[in-house]
Design a protein that fits this description.
single chain; 334 residues; mainly alpha; cytoskeleton
């Protein structure tokens, strides 16, 4: 009799497989759909902010380069003006020294000396040039001060703008992190709930299947038509339980035998330990008796040595006679 017969479709199993397919489809959408995968990020706003920041940095570089060129040009003009002033001062000092050398001698000290007209004109021209150069220097300083004020104002405004952008960027990053965290927590909670629900449904289906297989009368009955037979018969059910009972008794007998063997070995080792302890105790007692006998013999030997020493003192006059003492009795009488 064959048990591999055609079985109709199980509705519970089909529903379970359909639920699994739906869960896998939803998970695939969450992983592979770019809209759901990036729903916590506003990419358009971020791209606009990045473009605006790059344009601003480009404008700042152009402005800095223009300002540097103007500053280099003004430095060259200032150096040229300073060089001309030095040359004019040196020329004026040289002309003054030449005038003193020619017209302010000692022989002309009492006379009233007047400067020549051309020298006077040169001095006046140099004075006018010096005044004009001083005016230009003052104008240059005023212009430089004005440029410094403008640059300082622009730098302060730029710093404030950068600070505002940094604060805005930090707030945006915090908002993105919070949105990411909330989304991940919600996703983890949803996944854990789905996992628990799927596990509970699978466990319920498994228990139902086991219960139907082992205890259901619909599956255990033996209809007349053998082709529609599914499950096991009453005799097979009975043999299975008998086999289980037999296995339980065999396991219990094996455990009892193991316990008995363990008890036997424990008694054996306990007896060996007791014998060893008794023998060690006897050896200790014998060692004590032997030690007492050796102490008694040692004391007797000490007493005998003392008596022998006393006798030697009486007979030979010394306790330890030497070889010279015995040699005096072996001399030739002639």
């Amino acid at each position: 009799m064959s048990y591999f017969l055609k079985i109709p479709e199980d509705k519970r199993y089909a529903e379970k497989m359909e639920r699994k397919k739906q869960v896998l489809a939803e998970r695939g959408k969450k992983i592979f759909d770019p809209v759901l995968a990036h729903q916590a990020y506003d990419t358009q706003e971020l791209s606009h902010q990045v473009t605006e920041r790059r344009n601003q940095e480009r404008e700042e570089r152009v402005r800095d380069q223009t300002f540097d060129k103007a500053a280099h040009r003004l430095d060259a003009v200032h150096q040229m003006i300073a060089q001309k002033e030095q040359e004019a001062k040196k020329s004026l000092a040289h002309d003054l020294l030449e005038y003193r050398r020619l017209f302010q001698k000692k022989e002309f000290e009492s006379d009233k000396i007047r400067q020549p007209q051309d020298l006077k004109n040169d001095i006046l021209r140099q004075r006018d040039d010096l005044a004009r150069q001083m005016n230009e220097e003052q104008m240059r300083k005023d212009h430089q001060r004005h440029l410094d004020n403008v640059a300082h104002t622009e730098h302060a405004a730029q710093g404030a703008k950068l600070e505002n952008l940094a604060i805005t960027s930090q707030e945006l990053q915090k908002a993105l992190k919070l949105a990411n965290k909330n989304y991940n927590q919600a996703l983890a909670t949803h996944q854990a709930h789905d996992k628990r629900r799927t596990a509970a449904l699978e466990e319920k289906d498994r228990q139902t299947h086991m219960n139907n297989t082992m205890n259901s009368h619909l599956l255990n009955e033996v209809p007349n038509n053998k082709r529609d037979h599914k499950g096991i018969s009453e005799d097979q059910h009975k043999r299975i339980y008998e086999c289980w009972d037999k296995q339980k008794h065999e396991i219990e007998d094996a455990r009892n035998q193991e316990r008995q063997e363990e008890c036997t070995w424990s008694n054996y080792f306990r007896g060996v330990g007791n014998d060893y302890s008794g023998q060690m105790k006897v050896l200790q007692e014998e060692r004590v008796v032997m030690r007492r006998q050796m102490d008694l013999l040692n004391r007797k030997h000490v007493v005998e040595c003392k008596e022998r020493e006393d006798i030697n003192k009486v007979i030979y006059g010394r306790a330890d006679p030497t070889e010279a003492f015995f040699d005096q009795f072996q001399k030739d009488p002639r």
